[in-house]
């Protein structure tokens, strides 16, 4: 089976978040299932530089006002198509944001171009199916549908909170028939909805965990699309994300001063000491060290961590924070760090090596997200033996087995869950974790269970392959 995947980013060529990790890992995961994936990415400078010599496979004479081309290359073990459209993508910096932090003013047309190019490639180059990721690829299914193509499409929602909504007067620039701008189409509360397009015009829709697939079909978490998602019925499903377990491996990770596996987990103490030093914390081997890695945002529950700080400090533990995000939360993190030297440490920004050190050295990872489509952080924490403390939402609930009293007795817990998502319940979970940590044997069992968890793509890749085969069979009828 020949599959074309289209996304706005993909590791290791361009990455701003977990979407890139998923797009980068799926081709290798699907190969054993007999699915050959070609990934279409925008021709950002970083992508074009990473590809090296390329072969032009399609010339697009007029892609929204200027010529462009589709080029192909084998790079980093992946089959890549790049949309070489300098008028849209030959820009330094973020794929989405202009200097100053605002969206590029032409994002609507930039990612319409990506969708149109994906539809053209899927149809003209003989692909069996198209897999479109998130709103930036949301118009691809619409372009295929109105071109009369027989190529089936799967649309994956990575985060429903980001929908790609644009002014209605932009619709006339997209090159779609007027019938497409309707409730049964792209129209979304008087605007053009790119993510809605993907949901409406695709043969199947997936989210990145079964729990999130259920949540977004409710008014509480459906972000205005719950009715449409419920209406699609069995066409909507959740398939868990996984990790590239070769890339994420504490036994070989070059960012860790000490490598280890489940049989040598005591070596984590070396990483813990290095993490404490890097974060300006007191180097105390027996002190429980909690860590947060990610966006400093309301969604991620960073405010709850700061409100629950007494549960950490009053029980003799430490906190390390790595990330950036909302200015007010960054300021609060700076304040907590200054007020508690040696007990609270932080790094505002992102550093891949420091993130790996957090997973390989912290005793527990905090993820109190108010909603979480899947989350990769808890999978990294499990893989690296840092039991995650997670809110019981979305993919966090699907992947972390709570080490409650019965689970501890049965030897099955891999982390701690809490609900509802508030400061009080997070504090209770932290205190429970500190108690288990100080029991020693119980915490060691939880760590071992965490590292034994299957966080690979194997099961999910089989589900994706079955879904693609079903879509193709349905279109052939």
From TrEMBL:
<dbReference type="Pfam" id="PF08323">
    <property type="entry name" value="Glyco_transf_5"/>
</dbReference>
<protein>
    <recommendedName>
        <fullName>Glycogen synthase</fullName>
        <ecNumber>2.4.1.21</ecNumber>
    </recommendedName>
</protein>
<feature type="binding site">
    <location>
        <position position="15"/>
    </location>
    <ligand>
        <name>ADP-alpha-D-glucose</name>
    </ligand>
</feature>
<dbReference type="InterPro" id="IPR001296">
    <property type="entry name" value="Glyco_trans_1"/>
</dbReference>
<dbReference type="GO" id="GO:0009011">
    <property type="term" value="F:alpha-1,4-glucan glucosyltransferase (ADP-glucose donor) activity"/>
</dbReference>
<keyword id="KW-0320">Glycogen biosynthesis</keyword>
<dbReference type="InterPro" id="IPR013534">
    <property type="entry name" value="Starch_synth_cat_dom"/>
</dbReference>
<dbReference type="InterPro" id="IPR011835">
    <property type="entry name" value="GS/SS"/>
</dbReference>
<comment type="similarity">
    <text>Belongs to the glycosyltransferase 1 family. Bacterial/plant glycogen synthase subfamily.</text>
</comment>
<comment type="function">
    <text>Synthesizes alpha-1,4-glucan chains using ADP-glucose.</text>
</comment>
<feature type="domain" description="Starch synthase catalytic">
    <location>
        <begin position="2"/>
        <end position="230"/>
    </location>
</feature>
<feature type="domain" description="Glycosyl transferase family 1">
    <location>
        <begin position="284"/>
        <end position="435"/>
    </location>
</feature>
<keyword id="KW-0808">Transferase</keyword>
<keyword id="KW-0328">Glycosyltransferase</keyword>
<dbReference type="Pfam" id="PF00534">
    <property type="entry name" value="Glycos_transf_1"/>
</dbReference>
<comment type="pathway">
    <text>Glycan biosynthesis; glycogen biosynthesis.</text>
</comment>
């Amino acid at each position: 089976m020949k599959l074309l995947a289209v996304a706005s980013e993909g590791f290791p060529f361009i990455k701003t978040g977990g979407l890139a990790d998923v797009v980068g890992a799926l081709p290798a995961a699907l190969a054993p299932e007999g699915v050959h994936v070609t990934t279409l990415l925008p021709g950002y400078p970083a992508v074009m530089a990473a590809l090296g010599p390329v072969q032009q496979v399609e010339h697009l004479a007029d892609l929204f006002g200027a010529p462009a081309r589709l080029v192909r290359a084998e790079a980093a073990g992946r089959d890549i198509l790049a949309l070489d459209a300098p008028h849209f993508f030959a820009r330094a910096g973020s794929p989405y944001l202009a200097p100053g932090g605002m969206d590029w003013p032409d994002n609507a047309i930039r990612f319409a171009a990506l969708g149109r190019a994906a539809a053209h490639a899927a149809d003209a180059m003989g692909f069996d199916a198209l897999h479109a990721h998130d709103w930036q690829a949301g118009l691809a299914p619409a372009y295929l549908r109105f071109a009369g193509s027989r190529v089936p499409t799967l649309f994956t929602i990575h985060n429903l909170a980001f929908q790609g909504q644009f002014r209605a007067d932009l619709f006339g620039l997209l090159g779609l028939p007027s019938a497409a701008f309707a409730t049964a189409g792209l129209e979304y509360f008087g605007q053009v909805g790119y993510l809605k397009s993907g949901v409406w015009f695709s043969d199947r829709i997936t989210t990145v965990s079964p729990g999130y697939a259920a949540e977004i079909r409710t008014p509480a978490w459906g972000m205005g699309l719950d009715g449409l998602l419920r209406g699609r019925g069995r066409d909507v499903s959740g398939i868990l994300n996984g990790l590239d377990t070769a890339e994420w491996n504490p036994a070989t990770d070059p960012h860790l001063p000490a490598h280890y596996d489940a049989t040598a987990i005591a070596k984590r103490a070396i990483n813990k000491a290095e993490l404490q030093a890097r974060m300006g914390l007191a180097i105390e081997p027996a002190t429980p060290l909690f860590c947060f890695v990610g966006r400093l945002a309301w969604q991620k529950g960073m405010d709850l961590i700061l409100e629950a700080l007494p549960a950490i400090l009053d029980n003799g533990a430490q906190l390390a924070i790595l990330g950036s995000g909302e200015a007010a939360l960054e300021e609060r993190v700076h304040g907590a760090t200054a007020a508690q030297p040696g007990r609270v440490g932080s790094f505002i920004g992102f550093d891949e090596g420091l993130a790996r050190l957090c997973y390989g050295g912290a005793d527990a990872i905090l993820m109190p997200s108010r909603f979480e489509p899947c989350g990769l952080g808890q999978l990294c924490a499990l893989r690296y033996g840092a039991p995650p403390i997670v809110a019981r939402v979305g993919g966090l609930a699907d992947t972390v087995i709570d080490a409650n009293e019965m689970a501890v007795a049965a030897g099955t817990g891999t982390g701690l869950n809490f609900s509802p998502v508030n400061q009080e319940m997070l504090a209770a979970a932290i205190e429970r974790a500190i108690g288990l940590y100080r029991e020693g044997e119980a915490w060691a069992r939880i760590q071992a269970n965490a590292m034994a968890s299957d966080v690979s793509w194997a099961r999910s890749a089989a589900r994706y392959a079955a879904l693609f085969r079903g879509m193709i069979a349905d279109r052939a009828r």
